[in-house]
Structures are given as structure tokens and as C-alpha cells.
Amino acid sequence: MSETVLLVGGGGREHAIARALADSDADLYACAGNRNPGIARLADGFESLDATNSTAVTAYAEDVGATLAVVGPEGPLAAGVADALEDAGIYAFGPRRDDARIETDKAFQRRFMEEHDISGCPDFETFDDVEAACEYIDGYDGDLAVKPAGLTGGKGVKVIGDQVTAEEAKAYLRDSDYDRVVLEERLVGEEFTVQALVANGQLRVTPAVQDHKRAYEGDEGPNTGGMGSYSDANLALPFMTEDDYHEAVDVLKATVSALGDYRGVLYGQFMLTADGVKVVEFNARFGDPEAMNTLPVLATDFLDVLVAAREGEDLPKLSFASKATVCKYAVPEGYPTDPEAGAKVAIDEESAGDAILFFASVDERDDGIYTTTSRSFAVVGVGDSIAAAEETAEDALSIAGEEGLHVRHDIGTDDLVQRRVDHVQELRTGG
């Protein structure tokens, strides 16, 4: 039986999901607040609507006769879109609102880890009083990460001793309107992500990816939604051992077991420290950009995973091409603090060469595609090595040009990867 799949969301992550479903035996429909031209070209229909409006999403799903749905971004998950689709009899691959709290409520996330004795949890305290949080900062022996409890698009965290001083962190809290914050020990090491497809009490893991949050080369500047990422031709990254990877997977397994009837993607953001693997955070969906590294090398039919999840069957074992990937985002000049929209995007799927082009937030007009104030598009190189994949991504960016755009060209380069390897070696040897 042919499936009709509704994809909720219109970013680069969702473009990657759409591409993974485009060659399968599925009729694909999509809906989002922004019209993503890449998704629209792959889908049989695209509806512009508020993706956090459960009623509107469900009505469109029923209108197109959806038999499955994939909820991409965190906003609709937090709004209960997966719950509403389920109530309408449409299986949604994405956690219900209560389960999505593993991402949407960082205070819940840490208490959940503590309650279920899940390894890798840093020291933490939660606060709903700003002055009490500031007193904790004054009295804490060491540096802290300051995290709003709710969703902030990856830009709300401030790390004392890295991005801000203790005084600046307190000023940040006092100037904010956050209801609750989590203060936790600063983790020092190298970050990496492992994403798992989860349903029916099972999980299937994907290769590790390293994202780059800082806006500028050399890991400088403010945090962003993610400027790019890379993966290697095997499951681990060059600065990790296989044991490090499996330690992270064990954390995901324990979390899935404790969550019970979770379904969708569970994304573990980890820090490889001198004391082993620690949990920076969990997300309840594919990463953006990490989905753009993972899905292009997934050899297993993604639709088969969705159908098995819905039918209560064993999830298929995942197979991946033995290829490295490098993803680089092009963002509007001035992003994220003062982005300038309106630059024409001089690249499309045909002109991207050997790279894969994923659109994110763009404005499609009669005379072409233009940037908005959010991340515009990503190019992904795939190759036998990280270096080869990086070269392919750079070739595509040279076609795109840099008029009105900003790119972190250092992502995936030999120098950057070697710095990661050296850093972990120093941590392990105490150097």
C-alpha cells in the first residue's frame, strides 16, 4: 500500500527529511509557516500555515489523506501537534507534548536524568527566582552554564568562563524575562551529537556529528542555531574512540527505557570530557544541521522505519554509506545579532555540483530566491573522507558566491578537526 506522508516544518532539517522520503513509495505533502522551495519541489502539495496550530495541521493532514506524519521542529512538538494528529487517527513520528519535555523543559530534563539515575548528568540546580539564581552563581566554586528552562532556538545558553563573566551572567538573568533557569556545572571538552530513531521501545542509532554553534571562524562570536557540522565515514568522529560512541549510545538506551512509550527522534548532545561522556542536553527531534549529515548517507529506506514504527513492528536495522559529510550553512550578513535580509541566492539544486543543497529560511519571489533574517541554505559535501567532503562543500559555496552571505569556511577543515583531536588528547593526558 502506498503511504501518504505529511511533513510538518519548513527548514533545512525538513528539506533533508523530504529528500529522504522523495525516492520512497510515498506521496509527500508538507506544511509550514515558511514556504521552503526545496521541499515544495519534492512534495505533491505544500500548505502555508502556522505549524504550531494543531487544528490547522490536523485539518490539512485529513484533507490530503495522510497515513503518516513526521513532525520536524521543536515548536510544533511543544504545541502538541503530534498529540492532535494521533487523536485524529494519524500516526505521527514525533513525541507527544509530555514526552517532548525532554527537550522543551530543561529543568524537567535534568530532574528526569537524576530520578532515573541516567549517567552523564552534570551537577545542576533549577531556579524560578532570579535573585536566588544570582546568589547561587556568587557561591558556586567553579564556572556554570546558564540555561533558560524553555526553548530558545539554541541561542539562550550563556557559559561563564567562556562566553560571559559571572557578573555578565547575572546581568543577563536580571535583564531577561525567563520564568525558570537551570544552572549547571560547565562541561569542558568536545561536543558531539548522536541521534536515534525511536519507537516501540527500540532505538536505532546514527553516526556521530559535530555541530558548530559559534557564528565566526575559530569558534568565536555569539551562539547561533548552528553554522554547520561534519561526520566521518564511520560511526565515531576523529577525536573519539568507539568506546566513547558506545558510552553515548548507552545513555540514549537508558533514556529511551526510562521514557517508556517515546517515539520519534531522540537527539543526545554530549560532551567528551576528561571524565568521560556527559550530557549537554537532549532534543526531541533531528538536529538542524545534523539531519543534513545523517539522512543523505542513510541507506535504509526512511519510510520503512516510519511504517514499522506505526505497525508496532521491530524497527529495521539502519545501514549507512561509509562516507564522511561536511555541512556548511550560508546565513545572511550580520546573523545572528543584526541580520540583513534581501540578498539574492545564486545557487540551486542543479548548480550545486556534487554537493547537496538544502534550503532553510528563504523568500522565493518571481525573479528568484532571496535571504531572510534566518539561516538561508546549507550545502553538504559527501566523500570518502572529511577532507574530500569539505572540498565538495566549498566548491558549491564558490558557485553560490558570498554577496550578502556569511559562511564559516573552517568547518570540516583539516586544521579544525586536528584541533579537536589535540584538545581531547590534552584532556585525556591531563596536559
Short description:
The protein is an alpha+beta fold and 431 residues long. The chain has helices at residues 12-22, 37-42, 54-64, 74-78, 81-87, 97-104, 106-115, 130-139, 166-175, 242-259, 290-294, 302-311, 386-400, 414-429, and strands at 3-8, 26-32, 45-48, 68-71, 91-93, 124-127, 144-148, 158-159, 181-185, 190-199, 202-205, 210-211, 214-216, 220-223, 228-231, 264-273, 276-283, 324-332, 356-359, 362-365, 368-371, 377-383, 405-407.
Notes on the structure:
The protein has helices at 12-22, 37-42, 54-64, 74-78, 81-87, 97-104, 106-115, 130-139, 166-175, 242-259, 290-294, 302-311, 386-400, 414-429; strands spanning 3-8, 26-32, 45-48, 68-71, 91-93, 124-127, 144-148, 158-159, 181-185, 190-199, 202-205, 210-211, 214-216, 220-223, 228-231, 264-273, 276-283, 324-332, 356-359, 362-365, 368-371, 377-383, 405-407. The chain has 431 residues and is α+β, with helices and mostly antiparallel strands. The chain has three domains: 3-96, 3-Layer(aba) Sandwich (Rossmann fold), CATH 3.40.50; 123-185, Dna Ligase, domain 1 (2-Layer Sandwich), CATH 3.30.1490; 190-417, D-amino Acid Aminotransferase, Chain A, domain 1 (2-Layer Sandwich). The strands form six sheets. Strands 12, 15, 18, 19, 22 and 23 form a six-stranded antiparallel β-sheet that branches. The radius of gyration is 21 Å and the shape is globular. The mean pLDDT is 96.
